[in-house]
Design brief:
Order of helices and strands: EHHHHEEHHHEEEE
Strand content: 5-15%
Largest sheet: 4 strands, mixed
Strand order of the largest sheet: 1-4-7-6
Number of strands: 7
Helix content: 40-55%
Shape: globular
Structural class: alpha+beta
Length: 188
């Protein structure tokens, strides 16, 4: 592909696609929908921990921050892009579920799914039920939105292949079809 394109050989995009594929596989057994949000499992715990960890890495890269910083330290360096992230919506194609994964993120408050992730990570025996479909859906969607923001800030104009399960709002990109198949355009 031409300059400005990113394909799945980028480690962050490849890792996201692997996590999204795992969520897609999970959706064969439990539909990603509000009626199933409380369903929890070991697989949900794995996906929640992995997605949140990668989202933190990607946002720190986007903000130009080091490893020792916290997620909350990313907001100010992201500038107006933080507003795009907070207002960005992600659609789950099959169920039609549309969410704003970063909607509640401020300098003093984290999204509910991020707080659940910390509970599952640090005290799993008391927070295991927080490893549920709702928090996993929001975490994978949050990673997707954060990754598109990061790639856009790097000057990437389009990514391919597009995810199978998720679609993004106009704030961070758009889905298009090309001769190579489904892509996400990150152009303004």
């Amino acid at each position: 592909m031409s300059a400005g394109w990113l394909e799945e050989d980028d480690i962050h995009w490849a890792y996201f696609l692997a996590l999204e594929e795992d969520l897609h596989r999970l959706s064969r057994f439990v539909e990603i929908s509000e009626s199933n949000f409380s369903a929890h499992s070991i697989e949900c715990a794995r996906l929640l921990l992995a997605s949140c960890s990668e989202a933190e890495v990607v946002l720190k890269l986007a903000a130009g921050l080091g490893r020792s910083k916290k997620l909350g330290d990313c907001l100010a360096p992201l500038g107006e892009d933080a507003g795009h992230l907070v207002s960005g919506k992600v659609l789950f194609r099959r169920s039609g579920l549309e969410i704003q994964p970063w909607r509640d993120w401020t300098s003093s408050q984290y999204p509910e799914w991020w707080t659940a992730h910390n509970g599952v990570k640090h005290d799993r025996s008391n927070h295991y039920k927080e490893a549920n479909i709702k928090h996993v859906a929001y975490a994978v969607a949050g990673l997707f939105a954060a990754l598109l923001l990061y790639l856009r800030r790097r000057g990437v104009r389009a990514v391919s292949p597009a995810p199978r399960l998720l679609r993004i709002s106009d704030h961070l990109g758009s889905h298009d079809m090309s001769s190579e198949g489904s892509i996400i355009s990150l152009q303004d």
